[in-house]
């Protein structure tokens, strides 16, 4: 006996109830927002019908699985499902492990290393409130980039008209204001407009300010012809001062002739381009300040004698008063003369670690020579090209390298950073002197007193007096190149002798950090003046030097703004007309002509 197959005529429609019931169950769950008994029943009933259909399919349609159409259809379904699975897996991996590649020339959509460091160092939540509606996608993308480097940074876009109570809480006056909130502190960052994006520079600086626990004070020495802090025809430092104030520095002038010592609240002292020699008590006050763990930025131009030889010689630094001549030809491409070195090589130091091969400019500079001194770590910061040399007789024209006249070949160092641990010179030695007899104390004090004059070489003044390039200064006198400035560099060095025991408290560790002296010497001060400060990496050199001297090693340094390059193609009316005729007539006509020829050959 053979069983008759179930008739296909009536049962083939049963399959459609399965997908219909399944879709109804899923739709009910989506509308209700949760699984209910009705939605679960519909979904289970639909899946059961679909399962029974596949089990009884061979009886309903004998030979169905062996048909060629079934095999082709099954392969197509499997391939489609596999494609959806692969696409879903790729999207899942892309969302979870996203990788962005910035192909713009100036890396416009990549955060600077300083901004990344600031966000990573956040130990508490910082929230950015953007009172803007609708949200600018560019600003949203920038804030997303910040959040990728630190989960403690949050942001929210707020429509002031829909949430007036929140706008009133922040005292919002204009649409587009951006605020930072850190604990109970709130600070206005920027007021943006539809045509203006949120600035990375301002946002990072604001985060650093609001999370910082100190305001460093920078004193600029005055009274010896130094660069003025305000704008001046002689080369003021107003732009440099403004940049420091945005970095939460307090800038004040200092006249050591009016007070006997450096103020206790000084984070560092800046000596920018003095034209006259300092008094001996002033130099001694600076030496005492360094001995107590202070920081000093010295920027000295050629053809000057500031009288700092005793201080600099203690650190192994000598200024030769020669003029650096750059014969590489790089400066000529951008309109610079041979006496304005264009530097692209930097030392391995926190100040210059992110500079790469960027440009910095030092008009009318002198080289800085270094000699190793025990206990002092020195690091060159700014290095000229091998095609440069130190000119000893710049008054002789034309300028040519002549080793017999004292010229020195490059590369030359224009700036150096030095650090010294002064724990050995701190008060611990004083109690020992009190316990010794008076006669012995006098004997021990005498050699110490004799060491001071020996350290200051008097012969260093002679070459400076002989090598004054007055004629050369007059020949190369540019409106903004008469007085160069220098930028500081140094590298930290810690000595284990500073701690009396292997276990240190936080207080002893902080005292040890304060005992570290730092010095940066540049053979130029002009690079920090208003005429040159905003050129290439010059602001980064100056601000990073001040930040390192203030011992902000763990904080962000300077960030140069990224500007998009103008890559527009400017066409003349004739070129525009030719391009229009090509697009509208010539190219289509060529295509039709080619098609007609092919048709004629194949007819």
Description of the molecule:
The protein has 603 residues and is α/β, with parallel strands linked by helices. It contains 19 helices and 19 strands. An 8-stranded mixed β-sheet has the order 6-5-7-8-19-18-15-12, with helices on both faces. Strand 1 (126-131), helix 6 and strand 2 (153-158) form a beta-alpha-beta unit. The longest helix is centred in the last third of the chain and has 30 residues, at 573-602. Residues 424-514 have low confidence and may be disordered.
Please state the CA-atom Rg, rounded to the nearest Å.
Answer: 37 Å
Major sheet description:
8 strands, mixed
How many strand elements?
Answer: 19
Low-confidence stretches are: 424-514
Shape: elongated
Termini Cα gap: 65 Å
**How many H/I helical runs?**
19
Placed side by side, the strands forming the largest sheet appear as 6-5-7-8-19-18-15-12
Q: What is the helix fraction of residues, given as a range?
A: 25-40%
Strand content: 15-25%
């Amino acid at each position: 006996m053979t069983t008759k197959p179930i008739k296909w005529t009536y049962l083939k429609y049963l399959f459609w109830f399965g997908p219909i019931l399944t879709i109804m169950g899923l739709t009910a769950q989506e509308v209700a927002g949760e699984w209910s008994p009705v939605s679960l029943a519909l979904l289970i009933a639909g899946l059961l019908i679909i399962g029974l259909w596949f089990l009884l399919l061979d009886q309903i349609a004998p030979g169905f699985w062996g048909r060629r159409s079934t095999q082709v259809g099954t392969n197509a379904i499997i391939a489609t499902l596999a494609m959806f699975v692969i696409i879903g897996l790729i999207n899942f991996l892309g969302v979870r492990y996203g990788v962005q590649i910035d192909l713009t020339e100036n890396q416009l959509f990549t955060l600077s290393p300083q901004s990344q460091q600031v966000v990573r160092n956040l130990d508490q939540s910082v929230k950015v409130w953007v009172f803007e509606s609708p949200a600018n996608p560019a600003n949203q993308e920038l804030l997303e980039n910040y959040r990728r480097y630190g989960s403690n940074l949050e942001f929210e876009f707020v429509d002031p008209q829909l949430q007036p109570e929140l706008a009133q809480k922040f005292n919002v006056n204009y649409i587009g204001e951006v605020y930072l909130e850190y604990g109970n502190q709130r600070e206005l960052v920027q007021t943006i407009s539809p045509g203006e994006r949120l600035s990375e520079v301002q946002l990072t600086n604001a985060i650093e300010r609001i999370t910082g626990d100190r305001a460093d004070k920078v004193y600029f020495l005055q009274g010896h012809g130094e660069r003025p802090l305000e704008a001046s025809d002689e080369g003021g430092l107003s732009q440099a001062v403004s940049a420091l104030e945005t970095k939460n520095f307090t800038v004040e002038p200092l006249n050591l002739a009016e007070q006997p010592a450096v103020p206790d609240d000084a984070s560092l002292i800046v000596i920018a381009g003095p034209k006259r020699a300092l008094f001996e008590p002033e130099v001694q006050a600076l030496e005492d300040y360094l001995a107590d763990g202070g920081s000093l930025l010295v920027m000295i131009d050629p053809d000057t004698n500031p009288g700092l030889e005793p201080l600099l010689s203690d650190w192994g630094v000598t200024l030769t008063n020669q003029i650096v001549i750059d014969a590489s030809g790089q400066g000529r491409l951008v309109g610079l003369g041979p006496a304005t070195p264009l530097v692209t090589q930097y030392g391995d130091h926190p100040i210059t670690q992110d500079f790469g091969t960027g440009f910095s400019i030092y008009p009318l500079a002198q080289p800085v020579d270094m000699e190793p001194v025990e206990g002092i770590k020195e690091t060159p910061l700014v290095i000229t090209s091998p095609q440069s040399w130190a000119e000893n007789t710049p008054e002789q024209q034309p300028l040519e390298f002549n080793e017999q006249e004292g010229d020195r070949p490059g590369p030359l160092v224009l700036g150096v950073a030095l650090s010294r641990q002064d724990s050995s010179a701190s008060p611990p030695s004083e109690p020992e002197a009190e316990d010794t007899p008076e006669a012995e104390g006098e004997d021990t004090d005498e050699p110490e007193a004799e060491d001071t004059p020996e350290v200051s070489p008097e012969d260093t003044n002679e070459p400076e007096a002989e090598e004054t390039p007055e004629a050369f200064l007059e020949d190369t006198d540019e409106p903004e190149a008469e007085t160069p400035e220098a930028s500081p560099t140094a590298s930290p060095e810690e000595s284990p002798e500073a701690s009396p025991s292997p276990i240190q408290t936080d207080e002893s560790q902080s005292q040890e950090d304060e005992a570290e002296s730092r010095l940066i010497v540049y053979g130029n001060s002009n690079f920090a003046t208003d005429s040159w400060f905003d050129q290439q990496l010059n602001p980064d050199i100056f601000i990073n030097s001040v930040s390192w001297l203030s011992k902000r090693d763990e904080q962000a340094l300077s960030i140069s703004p990224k500007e998009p390059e103008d890559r527009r193609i400017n066409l003349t009316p004739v070129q525009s007309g030719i391009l229009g005729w090509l697009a509208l007539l010539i190219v289509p006509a060529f295509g039709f002509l080619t098609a007609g020829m092919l048709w004629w050959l194949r007819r």
